[in-house]
Amino acid sequence: MERIHYRIRPIDPHAHLFEVTLRIADAPADAVVIGLPAWIPGSYMIRDFSRHVEALVASQRGSEPRVRKLDKSHWRIEGHRARSSLTVRYRVYAWDLSVRAAHLDATHGFFNGTSVFVFVAGREREPVSVDIERPAGARFARWRVATTLPPAAGKAGAALWGFGRYRTSDYDELVDHPVEMGEFRTEGFDVGGCRHEIVLTGAGGRVDLERVARDLAPVCAAQIALFEPTRKRAPVSRYLFLTMATPDGYGGLEHRASTALICTHDDLPWPGMRDATDGYRGFLGLASHEYFHTWHVKRIKPAVFDPYDLGRESHTSLLWIFEGFTSYYDDLMLRRAGVVDDAAYLKLLGKAIDRVLAGPGRLLQSTAESSFDAWTKYYRQDENSPNSIVSYYVKGSLVALCLDLEIRAKTRSRRSLDDVMRLMWQRWGRDFYSSRAGAAHGLGEDAFAAVLKDATGLDLRDEIAAWAYGVDDLPIARLVAPFGIAFEPVPAGGADGGAGSADPRGAKAVTRRAGARRAATPAAAGASIGARTGARDGAVAIVSADRDGPAARAGLSAGDLVIAIDGMRCTEASLKTALARARPGDRMTMHAFRRHALMRFDLSLAAPRVEHVLRVTGPSALRRHWLEERAPGRGAA
Ligand code: ZN
Predict the structure, then answer these.
(1) Are 417 and 427 in contact (CB under 8 A)?
(2) What is the CA(253)–ligand 1 centre distance, in A?
(3) Helix (H, G, I), strand (E, B) or coil at 265
(4) Predicted confidence (pLDDT) per residue in 27-57, tens digit
(5) How far is the CA of 296 from the centre of ligand 1 (A)?
(6) How many angstroms separate the alpha carbon of residue 80 from the centre of ligand 1?
(7) Beta bridge partners of 102
């Protein structure tokens, strides 16, 4: 056991309590400061995990150490004897069913180390060991452990899928391997010298997990081939997709050798399912996204993330590269793996373009600004967000698209964004965890244009400045044309769309589901009120109003409950029908409750939002090479 050693056990699953014991074998003479992170890497929001810590006490044989809270996340221990063993014990309340914290009941346990393991200030670089213990009671006898934490050597070391002792080389590694425990199902495949396992919790029996493994294997292989075209080796020898199925969740969080995913039961394939549903494609896209992060953000990082400062916000303008490029490649990898065809892929791209164009905020905030302010804007969205911010995920993915197309067109397919990814991988990623000495490990805030030039020979400084640091719309139509693709407007289907999602990780799924819903109701809207709406109490609530749209100009605000249109009862269906039959410029009277007061609003309707498609216009060697590329660096004809 290491000098810093933890023990964690579910002491009361019904009360959602883990008990954690920290033993410092060689307590120093002066005070010991311990603390918990304020945020978890990959989710850029202050969460203050210490708020779920209870009953923290210190003990030592022969002394009575005192514990004093220093601030929201730190404790100081003093009055102990030096050079002997000091123990800290506390409980963690775990009832957050997300990928970001911890969750425990009698059906399973899940935790991220950032929620449960206090660090010893100043000793974060030391190796640590941890005993993961089974909850007491016969009903937990069949529980197993799924984690990529490395088992400790020797007799106490945990067996595969077992409770027992694990060991990491430092605190950063300890908290980068989430742990799932319970009676889960698993299905695996081997690609790139790596054993991949899908670990499924909470789904019951009617899931075709073999199908998931079959579909994910070529996606993983495509990503390995992108980064390591010669060696074809994954960066790790074991990788876990820790998947929790819930009635209505969606999200993922990346780690160095695993990902935690939450999806809905309906998104997963069932035995006998033939074609992939939109929900299942969305799940594969999510898994592809998090797997791509194994290279891009877990090893290739913004320089400011090395090392992470988990005590406060860590600002970078580069999330459009780390999340945006990942969002570009997640679906592109599905295409290259053959999981979706050209038409399905171009449809996904069209949806992403329309998502960006639907938000007036894109004309105010650049993707670089969106990255920097992720902590207070993107992760804390409200009714004003569509008017004031742009997504560094979605617009960032389109910046990646534009850069990739520009590089490919200018070099006649001899170079691509893949070359830029590979160069960053070779410079900073490949040896990230093995060579910790030396200076900056990662991409500097202003270094990207130079990296791109080194990888491709092209100077795209002006394009990067305009597309990632500017707010003008991207020149999609011009850039796709050489690829035999037309970017064309089509009439939008349906009313003004459903409620937006406040969960950043949910944004993509909501888009896909909204898209599916729209496709099922082809009635094209004839006019628009310029607001996002949702059903509430049998009427229609305004979720957010476009700043200069008809609803906002008439005085309607987020939260207003529209109960009548032109004197008739308003429901989601009746609003949709009324808008489908109206024309731009028509008047519409709405009665709505604001809080308790009934108010009347007179709207002058606007033209419906235009949507777009990417249509193939003819054969193109550039397009074939882009969408089917397997061997990199080869010029097409
Ligand atoms: Zn991501």
Answers:
(1) no
(2) 7
(3) helix
(4) 999 999 999 999 999 999 999 999 999 999 9
(5) 9
(6) 44
(7) 111
